[in-house]
Amino acid sequence: MGERTENVEIEDRSAILELLARVAWAADERLVADFIAEFTDDAVVERTSRDGATSRWAAQDGTLAGYVSAAGEGVSVEDRQTWNSDVTFSRWENGEVHVSSTALRVGSGGGGTSNVVLGDDRVHDVVVCGADGWRIRHRIIRLLGLGDEVGPPPVFDEAAAGGQSDRVEIEALFADYAWAVDTADVDAVMQLFSVDAVMQDPFGRFAGSGPDGVRLFFEGLFARPEFAGRMHMVSQLMLAPVGDDYRVDSYALVPAAFPNGAVNVHLLAFYRDVVRREDGQWKFVERLVGPRWERGEVDSGSKTT
Amino acid sequence: MASVSAPGIRIAYESEVYEGADAMERFAAVHGSGGGVVRRHHVNQLQARAQGDRIHARSMAMVTQLVPATSPFGAGAASMGWVGYVEDVFVKTEHGPLLESRWFRRWAGEVLSRFPREKEE
Questions:
Q1: B117: CB partners within 8 A, 6+ apart
Q2: Could you tell me which residues of chain A have a Cβ less than 8 Å from any Cβ in chain B?
Q3: Cβ-contact A112, A106 below 8 angstroms
Q4: How confident is the model at residue B73 (pLDDT cuts 50, 70, 90)?
Q5: How far apart are CA A40 and CA A31, in angstroms?
Q6: Which site from A52, A207, A302, B39 is most exposed, i.e. has the minimal number of CB atoms within 10 Å?
């Protein structure tokens, strides 16, 4: 394996985050072929449970597909989300990139409103870049409670740390949205939408467009006392170029804090967005929120469940 | 933590403040895993702005935890234990940004001041 070398450039980090997102979506949707396609031909997945037992699935012996069903064992839920957060990267002399992340798993039964934390794992991935892009060669999953060995601290490289990518900027748009919505700052929210934006929220039974329609929607939302305390956290962005725009599918998790300190997982939902760069800033052109959409559907607004 | 922390790091959880050489250890002893309790801190939705040689950031945060293995009820089950936000200050150095201070705050009070319920209270 050799030694750790330079930092991982932002373009590679963005591509690896996209890879992690595709793997999570494929596993959560139980799309076995899509899941396997994100791994190398010699890939291995190992998972250590709290009793210390390690299960192993390998591409070469044809068992890798078994991980997809194994990941959902133990509890019956309508839908689930597997997050990857707090991701660190380190590049090694042999070209491998080692990626450490946490993987919160949440299950839902009841259209996204009856939710349970299934687990919160530590995931170590070894990823390699081949002719087909980045793929996972080795994934080690350790369940919470087994000790939390994070990856090595990143090597700082100012040249690699600089730069920008569409993904980073679009993630910033999502962060700005969450802060604006969760602090009821309607003017800040409006800065994030194009003037011809369309907003649809089947949960709120709302569909509106243009600045007046979008503002009306959020003003109505912020007037509801029960909305205070909810936090709109987002993970696993998958970006698909559509002309100069991107269609972005993402996971949303909405925990709610109550004045007495209690917390629940209020909502598990999915965003489907079209974002566009206008005057140097990414904005929402379409924002749909609802239960899971079929993966293949690309027409905005065509929710199926 | 030492490799990403500035000397003299200050950690606060609401009004509890941890400072000095062993600030991280004392903070972790109360708020981290240990004594049969297992916790994990997550941060996301980060917003950051540079200000001179400092970077000011805020992130949404959540802490998951496991019911202790010794509990007769739900031992080993995971749950959401806390949500809130963190306000961070990083200092730029030749070795990269280092965390100078972190303040854990509940999702309450100031951040909810625009909502009608908070105004009425």
A1: A225, A228
A2: 50, 85-86, 102, 104, 117-120, 144-145, 148, 153-154, 156, 158, 161, 172, 174-176, 178-179, 182-185, 222-223, 225, 227-229, 231, 233-235, 255-257, 259, 261, 263-265
A3: no
A4: confident
A5: 17
A6: A52
Record the tokens describing residue A296, joined without a space: 């293949």
pTM here is 0.92
For chain B, the residues whose C-beta falls within 8 A of a C-beta of chain A are: 3-4, 33, 38, 40, 42-47, 58, 60, 62, 64, 66, 69, 76, 78-84, 95-96, 106-108, 111-112, 114-118
Indicate which of A233, A236, A271 best probes the interface with B, i.e. most B CBs within 10 Å of its own CB.
A233
pLDDT in tens, A233-291: 999 999 999 999 999 999 999 999 998 989 999 999 999 999 999 999 999 999 999 88
Min Cα distance B47 → chain A (Å) is 7
Q: Among B55, B63, B107, which would you mutate to test the A interface (most chain A Cβ atoms within 10 Å of its Cβ)?
A: B107
- Amino acid present at A116: V
- Report the C-alpha gap between A256 and A254 in whole angstroms: 6
pLDDT tens track for A35-90: 999 999 999 999 998 788 999 999 999 999 999 999 888 788 899 999 999 999 98
Record: contact B46-A175, CB cut-off 8 A? yes
Q: Do A178 and B60 touch (CB under 8 A)?
A: yes
Q: Is B94 exposed, middle or buried (0-12, 13-18, 19+ CB in 10 A)?
A: exposed
d(CA A23, CA A114): 25
Instruction: For A199-243, write each residue's pLDDT tens digit.
Output: 988 776 677 788 889 999 999 999 988 899 999 999 999 999 999
The verdict on ipTM greater than 0.90 is: yes
